Amino acid sequence: xxxxxxxxxxxxxxxxxxxxxxxxxxxxxxxxxxxxxxxxxxxxxxxxxxxxxxxxxxxxxxxxxxxxxxxxxxxxxxxxxxxxxxxxxxxxxxxxxxxxxxxxxxxxxxxxxxxxxxxxxxxxxxxxxxxxxxxxxxxxxxxxxxx
Amino acid sequence: xxxxxxxxxxxxxxxxxxxxxxxxxxxxxxxxxxxxxxxxxxxxxxxxxxxxxxxxxxxxxxxxxxxxxxxxxxxxxxxxxxxxxxxxxxxxxxxxxxxxxxxxxxxxxxxxxxxxxxxxxxxxxxxxxxxxxxxxxxxxxxxxxxxxxxxxxxxxxxxxxxxxxxxxxxxxxxxxxxxxxxxxxxxxxx
Amino acid sequence: xxxxxxxxxxxxxxxxxxxxxxxxxxxxxxxxxxxxxxxxxxxxxxxxxxxxxxxxxxxxxxxxxxxxxxxxxxxxxxxxxxxxxxxxxxxxxxxxxxxxxxxxxxxxxxxxxxxxxxxxxxxxxxxxxxxxxxxxxxxxxxxxxxxxxxxxxxxxxxxxxxxxxxxxxxxxxxxxxxxxxxxxxxxxxxxxxxxxxxxxxxxxxxxxxxxxxxxxxxxxxxxxxxxxxxxxxxxxxxxxxxxxxxxxxxxxxxxxxxxxxxxxxxxxxxxxxxxxxxxxxxxxxxxxxxxxxxxxxxxxxxxxxxxxxxxxxxxxxxxxxxxxxxxxxxxxxxxxxxxxxxxxxxxxxxxxxxxxxxxxxxxxxxxxxxxxxxxxxxxxxxxxxxxxxxxxxxxxxxxxxxxxxxxxxxxxxxxxxxxxxxxxxxxxxxxxxxxxxxxxxxxxxxxxxxxxxxxxxxxxxxxxxxxxxxxxxxxxxxxxxxxxxxxxxxxxxxxxxxxxxxxxxxxxxxxxxxxxxxxxxxxxxxxxxxxxxxxxxxxxxxxxxxxxxxxxxxxxxxxxxxxxxxxxxxxxxxxxxxxxxxxxxxxxxxxxxxxxxxxxxxxxxxxxxxxxxxxxxxxxxxxxxxxxxxxxxxxxxxxxxxxxxxxxxxxxxxxxxxxxxxxxxxxxxxxxxxxxxxxxxxxxxxxxxxxxxxxxxxxxxxxxxxxxxxxxxxxx
Lengths: 147, 190, 716
Prior knowledge:
Helix content of chain C: 25-40%
Oligomer: heterotrimer
Order of helices and strands of chain B: HHHEEEEHHHH
Helix content of chain B: 25-40%
Largest interface: A-C, 62 and 66 residues
């Protein structure tokens, strides 16, 4: 039994300790906002925060997350009030929307470290894949949220 | 220990020499020979991919530039909000194929970039405290036993279950020869 | 749309049952117990608390249709948009695409096919509500009544009655056969940028995609499909993994096996460990070289369907003193939806429920009914948001697996494909080999163009009717004629029977065909020593609508202004999905053929723009999608298997690779046809990029993706 603290709540996860954190979050804690896209840390759809830093949860085993503070998209705000969420809605960023939770979590980690990122900062911090191609709006929304 | 002048460099070299018995002609030769034998390890992809001269790491046996615009960042731990540890965890991951070691995954500093160096240049680089992280002889050996360095011999397999090629010498042999090199005065081949 | 990921089964099914109300306009509109919503027709029901529920027949795959179609109806109806809820319909004749009598979402035609239906349904409901109000008020003229913000309003007196108060009475009235549509001046949603209804849920993690669904009692399945396409299982050893934690069993599926377990990771790791071997199927093995050889032999051969023959292009070209011929190649492409294939099926004695992120709503029902042998009315299809569709989800292979497995284990089963299974078991956009020949006339313009196209089917897997040999409208569109003034035009098409599975992918045949044609036109322009924009313009001088898009693209891109060395601009003009388009790409080519995009201009005229914001979004995203097709996307085969297995081998364009300036312009050229927006953004990009590279450095590229020629995007 692995104890995980996700969005401030304790979950007891009855799964193999080598299960990727992603699947513990989705299937055991029932939080499906964090998405599965590739399983190989190539797409970023699974991005969560562990101790406030961005982690691709498909690549972290459950055991390594025990005792650490995990935040998923559901925990970013209770009511879409995080500046990034507001900016994402204002700019109408998502198309299919599947990549966006991971994208927003990556952006939140960026703003936590660099409150006013440059375009170059965004280029290097936001490497998630958006198959629908919403990158221009993502960049615009990050700037808007940072302002 | 950057920025230390030539005088200190010479003093360090003297310290190293003083710490060991004076090399006879034959032992000095075997010190630089030992380095020639271990040089290919430093030049192998497992080491060179993180000991880059550039603002980015490399990956793979073909040493292609690390995908996804991964950058060195200000301190070698990745760009802001995209730390190496975002993907690289404390052990090789079989599920995702991402390599890891029980140490915070990061690049060697630019001062310890070895790309494009000849064997002689590499040797000089490795004993220069300005370019080896300020390490003296034994500390150079100690560094060879960090988890990140040792990872090179336990590099796991990629996503397609293809094992990553280990350096050309076995680890124990590498360390043995490294000790001969340092113990013999850290002589460099021409 | 439901946003709860975990749903009580009975409540879920009961909610689905409510959708049965209003099966069709002709069917009796069954009212449930008093107080619940009343259906005025198949598309709208109204509750006594004024909530208006609009039914949606189409799948939301990122194109925004879940907002636009309900908005069209709500606008005609006069509903209060803030009190409108949207629900997916069931799969039933009332909800079929009226052109094809089939429920599906694709081909950029949801608005074109349903807009009028939505307007009529909204207008009909409006007239019934007004009639009910008139009965209540007595002695008022219909002409003095209107609806606005969820109320019927009597304009002269200002009296108003809410929809909720009138719904029950209105639902009893006969539906008007020919309701009157609102005049344009009264429209408040149609033609406006309406914030998308699904976006809030897509920024907080609450939006439910197929892969997110939880049905009580559900178990998970991971598949091992034959790596050789068309291959089958030789043997498998269920005992090799039977004792692993959570494993329920191993079962055959049509092209492989599936391991069912309590949790997905248990199923996936067990499937990885399963001892299983495969053997090639009837089509044996094949590789890219053998397919290329097949294409080449077909192109040089004599077996073609004559798709178009306007004038006598063959004669003109044969008589030309200097024939001008070029060949163009496009690679096979994968859909690579970010949400991999998945489906939940629950088969019980009393019926079958299928939940999926599908574009093939009706095909899903037909396939599930066929497998379970249940009558269609006992098969219920519930479609979710789709993490990308691009045509892949028109098919039902992943549905069949879930249904088969649920029948085996007698529990709801969720099948999830890994990225590797998804990428190697796609129905790929077929590669193309195209030869374009021209006879040059006055001014260097082509007097005759003949095209020979070899490419496998796109339409057959998603169409119930068998295609005659050497025809496929999805493959040939884009080369079936041209708006350029060319006196003679001919298209011959050979449809090879390939061992690789192929189907339709976003941009259909327009994608590779416009690459070929717009590269060819560009080559003709340069051969004539003329500016590529002016050359095109001269051939479109007779066509005002075409000129408008072309001229605007040239203007906004500063065409004609000098560019620095190493920079170039490329232009493409086309009509696709009934939308007139022009695109200009400006880029810089560095050493090592590393490209930096500078500016991309897209001009689109779909005739009528229903929602400029959503249309613009589709175009912007489409441009990036097109860049991936142009620069990177290539699927190759070896030993009958696909060589690319994840995004490392099949890369997508990333944020730092996109152009700093992307501008889109919408024009409304009017006309009867409503042009599509979902697939036009990507279509001209490959040609515009190739033409820009030629302008920058003189290298003409005739094969997609351009990575084949050594080109890539510069890293930041």
